[in-house]
Amino acid sequence: MRSLLLRLLPWIVAPALSAAALPLQEGDIVVTDNETGNIVRIDPASGLQTLLPCAYAFRRPQGVVATTDEVLFVNVPSIVLLDGELVSLTDAGCGPVSQGGDLENSDGIALDRDGTVIVSSMACPSCGAGAPPAIVRVDPVTSVQTPVSSGAAFVNPEHIAVRPGGRLYVSDDGCPTCNPIVPPALFDVDPATGAQTVVSEAQLLINVSGIALEQDGHVLVADRGCSACVPVIPSRVVRVDPLGPVLANQTLLASATLNNEFDGVAIDATGAIFVGVENSLADTGGVSRIDGTTGLETPLSLGIFLEDVDGIAIVVPEPGSSAAAVAALAALAALARARRSA
User: Fold this and answer.
1) Are 284 and 299 in contact (CB under 8 A)?
2) Would you write out the chain's pLDDT as a tens digit for each of its 342 residues?
């Protein structure tokens, strides 16, 4: 009953939502809820939730990225016969900007510096002859999908982080039921050539639910753990040094409390760490803050519009409108004024 009510909420309250829900503020948190279909803005200071209006049917949102003017999320529709898609939410409405193709079985998403998005496409045996696992670039303006890297060492590539220089980190779930077993791994991917290089493998990784890049170059990995294992392996956040030995470069940062599962991780411009949380006992979801030094988890926002958080993102400026660019333009304007007055 609770899930049904949460699914109906967008249709009940969307007409009454203020258009002020967009644009968003830089530093806001945006999460997608796989169970309810909700897209929710969370104030990083107060934890206040705002339901973003998206009256778009058959939503089952996965990964998400967000700028001040637009939210983009990967959608795997709840009706099996419908294609996977990239959906855009702006103040003008909510709807797909690219469908089908390599988006058939997508989950992870990252925003590149030029405004295009990088999307993962996991192996899909039911897609015709069997679509290979791949990383794809999608232009939200033209809807064009361009392969970046596919096959090779990929088994189930899922979560993506874009490095400052443009190279990618991609997590791969591996295949625990294969013979031989393929362990989970973190790849470095060259988007120019598609070349894949394993930078970390196995160790503390079991079931990755998200990755994020720290300012010092380390990669934070949210992992669901293994609740069915004996003993239980709790969900956790792992810090990876991609320059260290492939089989010895992971450090445990945080472990989830009982019945909690970390789903997704995001880091804001100040270095603050946020994770999506699902509580299996209370059947509710939310967002917590993780202390980057001690690993202490502090709940920020829980329940209301959230039940099963899947994607989490920090709102960033529109590409080309960064603070550095604005400051540079302001400096040029000041210089021009000084020259005119000289």
Assistant:
1) no
2) 444 444 444 433 433 333 346 789 999 999 999 888 999 999 999 999 999 988 776 678 999 999 999 999 998 776 666 778 899 999 888 889 998 888 877 889 999 999 999 999 876 555 545 567 889 999 999 999 999 999 889 999 999 999 999 999 999 999 888 888 899 999 999 999 999 999 999 999 999 999 999 999 999 999 999 988 889 899 999 999 999 999 999 999 999 987 889 999 999 999 999 999 998 877 889 999 999 999 999 999 998 899 999 999 999 998 765 444 444 434 434 443 443 344
Q: Is 342 exposed, middle or buried (0-12, 13-18, 19+ CB in 10 A)?
A: exposed
**Residue closest to 313 by CA, chosen among 147, 162, 177:** 162
3-state SS assignment for residue 308: coil
β-bridge mates for residue 87, sequence order: 73, 96
- Positive or negative: CA dihedral 91, 93, 94, 100: negative
pTM: 0.85
For residue 267, give the nearest of 315, 325, 299, 303 by alpha carbon.
315
